[in-house]
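Reopening this one. Same input as before:
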Amino acid sequence: MDQARASDGRPAPPAPAGPATWTSVARNSALECLLAFALLLTVITIVRWTVGPSPVSAAIPYPHT
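Same output, byte for byte:
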């Protein structure tokens, strides 16, 4: 069947993946968390630079210590 696919020009299907280990799940979760934080921080920064501070944040007095 693989030769039929090869002669047809289509790529062979991917090999089945093994079970996920806790290490790979933890590593991927940490990477996803860092990327989500970076994306959120980037979006907030771009909005603050283009739009400016919101009226709500301007109404909240900053603590002076």
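So the earlier flakiness isn't reproducible anymore. For the record, Helices lie at 2-8, 22-50, 55-59.
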